[in-house]
Design a protein that fits this description.
The structure holds two protein chains of two kinds. Helix content of chain A is about 55%, strand content about 15%. By secondary structure, chain A is an alpha+beta fold. Chain A folds into four domains: about 220 residues, no CATH class; about 200 residues, no CATH class; about 230 residues; about 150 residues, no CATH class. In chain A, strand 6 and strand 7 form a beta hairpin. Chain B is an alpha/beta fold. Helices cover about 35% and strands about 30% of the residues of chain B. Chain B is globular, with a radius of gyration of 17 Å. Chain B starts with a strand and ends with a strand. The chains are: A alpha+beta, B alpha/beta.
Chain lengths: ~850, ~220
C-alpha cells in the first residue's frame, strides 16, 4: 500500500544505520558461507564421482573378495565370459616390499596385477604417452614417480618384486579407479597378469584383494548381471557391485571428512543467528523514538513491521546471496586445503542444488532469528515519547512460537546434514550443554563483577561500562566464550593426538609389522631377525551373527566406529598379553566349557553389544564356527602392541588356514637392511613400516584440523561481530561517557584506558573461560574417547589466551575509535535541544 | 470535542507504583484553544497522551468527537492519529532518517494523499523553510525543527492538535514565534488546540485553562 514510502524509508534506514546494517549483513553472510562452501563442495565431488562412476570402478560390474572366489562364483563368471560382448579382466591388489637390484634399498608398495582389458573405462595415463598395455609387457613394471624418487631409480632400472627381477618400463601419471592417494601405504606398481604366477606372491593366506571387472554389452543390464552373480556369491566374503551401486570407500571417507566440517558450519550458523538477533535488537532499540513518532503520526503496526521486515529481508537476501558467492569462492580454497583427500580431477562448478539449499537455509535463519525482535515491534507504544517507564519483561506467545520454531529448524538442520539421529542428538546435546554451561558461568561472573568493590577509578568505570543500558555484554560473553572453547578444544585435542601418536612414539613400541608369514617360514624368519620374537597366528574370518541375529553388512557400513561386517583377524592362545586384563568372566576360557569358546575385547563388545555367554557365529573361508563368549578383555594401556578382538582356544583354530604375524622394534638405521633380508628370503611376507604410516596419518590429521580450524574462524568472526554491534548499540552512551570524562578534566588517555580495560575484561573473561572449558572438553575427549593421556600445554594455552584477549581489545577499540575522537562541544551542541 | 471521564493512570518506575492522574474529567469544545498547566511531574504530559490515545488509562474514558477511544486497538487508533490528530512535541521528534519535507509529507503519504508534496511545500513556504526543505533534522536549528513539526502536524488538516510544551526547548524569541504560528494556524483552520505549557502569557490567551496539581485537576477557567 505504501510501497514507495516504505522503499524510501528502508533506504534511509540503511543509510542512517550503515554500521549496524553492515554488521547485520555480515552476520547473514557468515550464517551461510560455511554450509554453502561445504554443501557445494560435497555436491561437486559427489557429482564428479557419479559422473565418473564407470571410470572410478573401471567396469560395469565388479566382483570382489578378500579370498579367491568360491567355485560357484567362478562358474558364473565363466558362463558370463562366454556370452557375446562380455569381457572380464581379473585384478589382484596387495602390498609387498620391493627391493632395488643392488639390494641397497627397499620400499613397501601397492601392487596391482592386471589382466589385459583393464581398465574397461577411463585410462591409465603414462608419462611416455604410450598405451598402458603396450608398456605393461611381461617382465616390465609401470610404477609411480614417488617409487623412483624414494628408491633413487630411473626408467630402465631393475627392481626385485618377490624373487623376480623386473624392469621399470614406464611411470604412471593417473589411474581411473585410484583417484586418492593420501592414505596409501606405498606407491603403485602395475604388473602384467602374465607375470603373476612366477612372482609367487599370491598364495594361500596372502593379504590380497581379488577382483573381477566386467564390461557388458549395451543389451545386458549391469543390475541383471549383478543379481545373477549374487545368486552364486557367498555374501559372507564376496561382494558384487555395479558401477552405480558400488559403495565407494572414497565417497565414505569423503563424507566422514565433511561430517566434522558440517558440525562446525552448523555451529557458525547458530552463532551468526544469535548475531542477527542481537544486532537487530540493538538496531531497533535505537529506533524506538522514530517508531513511536511514526505511530503517533498514524502509522499502523503493520506499517512499522513492514518497514523493518523489508529492511531485514533486503539485508537477508543481500547477505545470503553474498554468503553463497563467498561460499562458492571458498570451494576452490577447500579443494586446496583438502588436496589429496578428494579426487584430483573433480571439477568445480556451481552446484545449483546446494546453492538453492543455502538460499533457503540463509533466509530461514534470517527469518527465524529476526522474528523475535520484529514481533516485539508490535509492543512498542507511542507513549514512549513522553516517558521512560520500565515495563516488566513479558514473553509473548509469538516469542515462544519463534523459539520453538528456531529450535526445530536447528534440530532439523543438524539431522539433515548429519543424517544420523544418534550423532545429531549428541551434537545438539553437546551444543546446548556448552551454551548452557557458558551462560551460567557468564551470569555468575557478571554478578560477581557487579559487586566487586573496585577502588581504582578507571577499573570502576570500566566495570560500570559493562552494565550500561543496551550493552549486550552477556550475549557477547556467551558467544565469544563458546566459540573460543571450540577453537581451543580442537587445537588442544589435535596437539594431544599428535603428541601421543607422532611426537612421543614410545621408545619400546614396535615400529615394523611383518604380516602373512607362513607356519613353515617361522624358523627362517626367526633366524633373519635374530632377536626375541612373539608370533601371533592369524585366521581371517567374518562375524556372521550374534546370538542368532545376523550381522547386516549394509547397516554396519553406516557405522562411524568399527564395522562388524569387515573381515576380522582371529587368533588363538591360552594366556593374557602384558597389556590385557579380564573385565568380565574369571579366566580367558572357562574350564569345562568346551572348545568352542571365545574371549572378546571390550572395544568390539561395546560396538556389537556383546555380553558374557553370548553366542557368536563366524565363517572362516566358508566354514561356519560358533563359539560362546567366555570372557571380555580390556587393554590396560593404549600402545602400539598388537591386539586381537577375538581370541580362541588352540584346539579350535589350530588347523584353520592361517598366517603368522609379528611386530618388532627396529632401529631406523637397521630398518632397510632388515626389510631387504626378510623380503629377499620370504617374498610373500608383507612388511609394514608403522612409523612412516604414522607420519602420513599425522599429515592428513594436520590438514584435516586445519580445515576445521578454518571453518571455526567463521564462528569466531560471528563473536567479533557481536562485539562490534554492541559498541554500535551503545555508541551514544559511550560518547556521553567520553564527553563527560573530558568535560570533567580527564585526558583522552584516560578514556582510552577505560575503554581498553572494558574490552580486556570481555576478552579476558571469554578467553579464560573458553580455555578452561576447552581443557575440560579436550581432557574428556582424550581420556575417554581416544583413551590417551592428557597434556596441558601451558605455553600454547598462554599464547591462545593472549591472542584471544588481543583480538577482542583491538576489535573493540577500533569500533570505539570515532567515539573517542568526538569533541565534547559537538556532542553538547547536538544534545542541547534535549 | 474532547471529553474525559474519571481518568486514572499510574506507572511503575523502579518497582514503585506512582499514581500520576487521579479522577481527571474535562471537556474541550471544537475549535477551542485549551492549555494544561501544572508543575513538573503533575501529570500534564500523561494527561495529553491519554487524551490523544497515545496511552491507555487504568480506568476512566476518553471521547473524541463523540467516539469512545479508550478501548480502541492500536490499529484502530492509527487512522484517528493520522487524520484527526496532529502532534507537536517538546523535543520535536522529527524522524531522523527523513528530510524536512519528507517529515512533513509523512502523515499525508500514510493517508494516501495525492497532493502530499505540494501541500508540504506550501506549508514549509508558510513557515519560511522552503530553502531548508531538503535538509535533514540534525542540520536544522531547534526553532526550524519545531516549525517543520508544526507543518507535519497540520498537513492532514486535523481537527485537533495536541502540543506538549512546544516551546520548552527553544529560546524565548523562537518560542514566541512558534506560539504565534500555532495560534495563527489554529484560527485559520478552526482547529481544536490542546497545549501543555508553563507559559502564563499564553495561558491567558487560551479559551480554557486546566490546572493540574499532583495528578488532580484542581480547577479550570474559561475566558
Amino acid at each position: 500500500m505504501h510501497a514507495g514510502l516504505l522503499t524510501r524509508l528502508i533506504a534511509r534506514e540503511l543509510r542512517q544505520n550503515r554500521q549496524q546494517s553492515t554488521v547485520l549483513f555480515l552476520c547473514v553472510v557468515l550464517s551461510v558461507v560455511g554450509l554453502t562452501a561445504l554443501g557445494g563442495f560435497q555436491a561437486n565431488v559427489h557429482q564428479a564421482m557419479l559422473r565418473d562412476a564407470r571410470q572410478l570402478h573401471a567396469a560395469d560390474v565388479i566382483a570382489r573378495s578378500s579370498f579367491p572366489f568360491m567355485p560357484a562364483l567362478e562358474e558364473k563368471l565363466a558362463a558370463l565370459r562366454a556370452r557375446p560382448g562380455v569381457a572380464i579382466a581379473r585384478v589382484w591388489e596387495f602390498y609387498t616390499v620391493v627391493r632395488t637390484a643392488d639390494e641397497s634399498a627397499s620400499l613397501l608398495s601397492a601392487v596391482k596385477v592386471v589382466e589385459p582389458g583393464y581398465p574397461f573405462y577411463g585410462q591409465v595415463v603414462l608419462a611416455s604417452g604410450k598405451p598402458f598395455h603396450e608398456a605393461l609387457s611381461p617382465g616390465r613394471l609401470v610404477v609411480e614417480q614417488t617409487l623412483l624418487d624414494r628408491l633413487g631409480l630411473t626408467i630402465g632400472n631393475r627392481l626385485f618384486l618377490g624373487d623376480v627381477e623386473m624392469v621399470i618400463g614406464d611411470v604412471v601419471v593417473s589411474e581411473p579407479d585410484r583417484p586418492v592417494t593420501v592414505f596409501s601405504l606405498g606407491p603403485r606398481i602395475f604388473v602384467s597378469a602374465r607375470d603373476r604366477a612366477r612372482l609367487g606372491l599370491i598364495t594361500q593366506g596372502s593379504r590380497v584383494s581379488y577382483m573381477a571387472l566386467l564390461r557388458l554389452p549395451a543389451t545386458l543390464s549391469p543390475e541383471a548381471v549383478q543379481n545373477d552373480l549374487w545368486s552364486a556369491a557367498d555374501p559372507a566374503q564376496e561382494r558384487i557391485d555395479t558401477f552405480r551401486s558400488a559403495d565407494s570407500r572414497l565417497k565414505r571417507s569423503f563424507d566422514n571428512l565433511l561430517f566434522f566440517l558440517k558440525l562446525v558450519g552448523i555451529f557458525t550458523l547458530l552463532l551468526a543467528g544469535i548475531g542477527i538477533q542481537s544486532v537487530l535488537t540493538a538496531l531497533l532499540r535505537t529506533r524506538v523514538r522514530s517508531m513511536a513518532t511514526m505511530k503517533a503520526l498514524g502509522a499502523p503496526n503493520r506499517f512499522i513491521t513492514q518497514l523493518y521486515l523489508g529492511l531485514v529481508l533486503l539485508l537477508g537476501v543481500l547477505g545470503t546471496t553474498s554468503g553463497i558467492a563467498v561460499g562458492l569462492a571458498l570451494q576452490e580454497g577447500l579443494s586446496r586445503l583438502l588436496a589429496g583427500l578428494i579426487p584430483a580431477d573433480a571439477s568445480f562448478r556451481i552446484a545449483w542444488d546446494a546453492v538453492g539449499q543455502s538460499l533457503v537455509i540463509g533466509l530461514l535463519a534470517v527469518g527465524l532469528f529476526a522474528a523475535r525482535p520484529l514481533l516485539n515491534l508490535r509492543h512498542f507504544k507511542p507513549s514512549a515519547l513522553f516517558r521512560h517507564e520500565k515495563r516488566p519483561r513479558r514473553i509473548y506467545p509469538g516469542e515462544w512460537l519463534t523459539g520453538v520454531l528456531t529450535l526445530l529448524f536447528f534440530v532439523g538442520l543438524v539431522l539433515w546434514h548429519l543424517e544420523d539421529l544418534r550423532t545429531g542428538s549428541y551434537f545438539i546435546g553437546g551444543i546446548l550443554a556448552l551454551v548452557g554451561i557458558v551462560f551460567v558461568c557468564v551470569w555468575l561472573f557478571l554478578k560477581a563483577l557487579r559487586r566487586l568493590p573496585a577502588r581504582h577509578l578507571a577499573i570502576r568505570q570500566a566495570i560500570r561500562g559493562l552494565f550500561r543500558p543496551r550493552n549486550a555484554t552477556q550475549p557477547i560473553l556467551v558467544t565469544l566464550t563458546a566459540s573460543l572453547t571450540i577453537i581451543f578444544a580442537i587445537f588442544l585435542i589435535e596437539r594431544n593426538l599428535d603428541a601421543t601418536f607422532v611426537e612421543a612414539y614410545p621408545q619400546d613400541a614396535p615400529n615394523v609389522f611383518f604380516l602373512d608369514i607362513q607356519r613353515d617360514q617361522m624358523e627362517l624368519f626367526a633366524q633373519l631377525v635374530d632377536g626375541p620374537l612373539a608370533f601371533y597366528p592369524v585366521v581371517r574370518a567374518r562375524l556372521m551373527a550374534i546370538n542368532g541375529q545376523a550381522i547386516d553388512p549394509a547397516k554396519e557400513r553406516q557405522r562411524k566406529s568399527d564395522n562388524l561386517a569387515r573381515p576380522f583377524n582371529l587368533t588363538y592362545r591360552h594366556h593374557l598379553l602384558d597389556d590385557e586384563e579380564i573385565i568380565a568372566g574369571k579366566t580367558l576360557f572357562t574350564a569345562g566349557g568346551g572348545d568352542f569358546q571365545v574371549s572378546v575385547l571390550d572395544r568390539v563388545a561395546e560396538i556389537g553389544g556383546i555380553h558374557l555367554g553370548d553366542r557368536l557365529r563366524f565363517k572362516i573361508q566358508g566354514v561356519p564356527l560358533e563359539a560362546v563368549v567366555s570372557s571380555i578383555r580390556t587393554r590396560t594401556r593404549e600402545s602400539l602392541q598388537p591386539f586381537f578382538y577375538f581370541v580362541f582356544p588352540d584346539a579350535v583354530l589350530e588347523k584353520a588356514p592361517q598366517t603368522i604375524f609379528t611386530a618388532l622394534r627396529v632401529e631406523p638405521a637397521e630398518m632397510a637392511a632388515l626389510q631387504n633380508r626378510v623380503v629377499k628370503a620370504l617374498p610373500n611376507v608383507t612388511v609394514l613400516d608403522v612409523s612412516q604410516s604414522i607420519r602420513q596419518i599425522a599429515g592428513a590429521l594436520t590438514r584435516f584440523s586445519e580445515a576445521i580450524r578454518f571453518f571455526t574462524l567463521f564462528s569466531m568472526a560471528a563473536g567479533i561481530l557481536l562485539v562490534i554491534s554492541s559498541v554500535i548499540a551503545t555508541r551514544s552512551a559511550r560518547i556521553r561517557e567520553a564527553v563527560y570524562y573530558k568535560i570533567l578534566g580527564a585526558r583522552g588517555r584516560f578514556v582510552l584506558y577505560v575503554f581498553s580495560l572494558e574490552n580486556i575484561l570481555i576478552g579476558g573473561a571469554s578467553a579464560v573461560g573458553g580455555l578452561l572449558l576447552a581443557h575440560l572438553i579436550s581432557w574428556v575427549v582424550c581420556t575417554t574417547y581416544f583413551d590417551i593421556g592428557y597434556h596441558l600445554y601451558p605455553a600454547v594455552s598462554l599464547v591462545g589466551l593472549v591472542v584471544g584477549i588481543l583480538t577482542v581489545v583491538i576489535v573493540g577499540l577500533s569500533a570505539s575509535g570515532s567515539i573517542m575522537r568526538r569533541k565534547p562541544i559537538q556532542f553538547l551542541r547536538a544534545h542541547a535541544a534535549e | 470535542m474532547i471529553e474525559s471521564y474519571q481518568l486514572n493512570k499510574s506507572y511503575t518506575i523502579d518497582d514503585r507504583r506512582i499514581q500520576v492522574l487521579k479522577d481527571v474529567s474535562l471537556r474541550v469544545s471544537a475549535g477551542e484553544f485549551a492549555v494544561i498547566q501544572g508543575s513538573s511531574g503533575s501529570g500534564k504530559s500523561t494527561l495529553l497522551s491519554l487524551l490523544s490515545g497515545l496511552d491507555r488509562p487504568d480506568s476512566g474514558a476518553v471521547r473524541i468527537q463523540e467516539q469512545d477511544i479508550t478501548d480502541l486497538s492500536e490499529d484502530d487508533l492509527a487512522p484517528l492519529r493520522n487524520r484527526t490528530f496532529g502532534f507537536v512535541f517538546q523535543s520535536f521528534y522529527l524522524v531522523p532518517s527523513l528530510s524536512a519535507i519528507e517529515n512533513v509529507m509523512f502523515p499525508a503519504e500514510l493517508s494516501g494523499s495525492p497532493s502530499a508534496t505540494a501541500d508540504a511545500e506550501k506549508l514549509l513556504a508558510r513557515v519560511g523553510l522552503s530553502h531548508r526543505r531538503r535538509n535533514m533534522p540534525h542540520q536544522l536549528s531547534g526553532g526550524e525543527q519545531q516549525r517543520v513539526a508544526i507543518c507535519r502536524a497540520l498537513i492532514n488538516q486535523p481537527a485537533i492538535i495536541f502540543a506538549d510544551e512546544p516551546t520548552g526547548n527553544l529560546d524565548s524569541r523562537s518560542g514566541q514565534a512558534i506560539l504565534e504560528l500555532m495560534l495563527e494556524f489554529q484560527q485559520e483552520f478552526h482547529t481544536t488546540l490542546l497545549m501543555v505549557t508553563h507559559n502564563p502569557d499564553l495561558a491567558r490567551r487560551a479559551d480554557i485553562r486546566f490546572q493540574l496539581t499532583d495528578g488532580r485537576l484542581e480547577n479550570h477557567e474559561r475566558h
